[in-house]
Amino acid sequence: MTRVLHVLDHSLPLHSGYTFRTRAILKSQEAAGLEVRGVTGLRHAADGPPLETVDGLTFHRASGSVSGPAGLREWREIARFAESIEQVVREWRPDVLHAHSPALCGAAAMKVARRHGIPLVYEIRAFWEDAAVGNGTGREGSLKYWLTRALENRVIAGADAVFTICWGLKDDLVVRGFAPGKIGLSPNGVDLSLFGEPVPRDEVLARELGLGSGPVIGFIGSFYDYEGLGDLVAAMPLLQAEVPGSQLLLVGGGPMDDALRGQAQTSPAREAIRFTGRVPHDVVERYYSLIDVLAYPRKQSRLTDLVTPLKPLEAMAQRRLVAASDVGGHRELIEHGETGVLFAADDPAACAARLASLLRNPGGWEAMRDRARAHVAEHHDWARNVRRYQDVYHRLLAPMPNGAMPAAA
Questions:
Q1: What is the pTM of this model?
Q2: What DSSP assignment string belongs to 160-209?
Q3: Which of 221, 275, 278, 313 has the greatest number of beta carbons closer than 10 A?
Q4: What are the strands, taking DSSP E only, across 259-371?
Q5: Helices (DSSP H) in 291-364: which residue ranges?
Q6: Are 50 and 60 in contact (CB under 8 A)?
Q7: Minimum mean pLDDT range among 3-7, 61-65, 207-211
Q8: Does a structural domain hold residue 408?
Q9: Range(s) of the domain holding residue 236
């Protein structure tokens, strides 16, 4: 049985799009007959034992801490993480190292892979220099920005095979000069076995939140600036003028929480805007049941143009209507008028107009939900997507004359 060690920034029991994608990959690979474990780096900010089982999955935890000025601190972090990976490799003896971005994970895994002659697969979920800009923790064009990109380029060049989660990321790597054949696609996906028929509207929760009978626009996730939720709040007065009784439900929290609440308080539509704060993952389905249209008004940026999000796919898998801004990451997932609707990014009026048009035409909702669910099942089901990895693993592990490694794709 092939053993695959996944090298990760963080994992369950923490909840994030990163950890949920990791869970789906590992569970699907186990179901396909692989033996898998994860090892997390120094940034896994959760208390727990050095060897931890979460949701039936096994994770090794790197220990220790590093300090020093920026740049030197990251090199020390890579070295310390490599020591932890090395220990797991010696004890568990994996056949493949599969590292996931950021590049710190890839660089640490590359050190160990070269030392032991183990194939290295590197998977890019986002360019972390662009993610830092989107999160407000970095600046495009800064020294840190270019150093982060240089480190990632080094890992990509040294890996035996590379995966990206979408075409936007792959195309960018090709422009940088990397061979297209070395880069596979493993798109964001969902475990369809987790999604049955949508649960009925939770009337008890609706009363607790003070929701009326009108249509509910909703967002469930983290409140980062690049998500564009301010545009959604700004669209509400315009939407109410077109569809009286419309409401907005914002579930989650994050860096923009206070700013959004302040904006909502000054809005003419403030009585129709509800904030729930963060909610436990095991009850989030109750909140989904209240929402007629899931809205994703991401701002136009390099990050949102190149990276496909997970949340719209989860909504489509649950047969929820989806409306999203027309950034590149959304266009890869949603076909306008077929599996959802798109509107101009950074434009509250365009957002309101598209939502109003959708809400005024409920006759087409059921067919749109059916098409969206079918699209996810055909293109984004992890039970199918996992085969993309296996094909690459098998190629990298194929015996070669004189013990040579097979060439990267």
A1: 0.89
A2: SEEEESSHHHHHHHHHHT--GGGEEE----B-GGG--SPPPP-HHHHHHH
A3: 313
A4: 273-277, 293-296, 321-325, 341-343
A5: 302-306, 311-317, 328-331, 348-359
A6: yes
A7: 61-65
A8: no
A9: 193-379
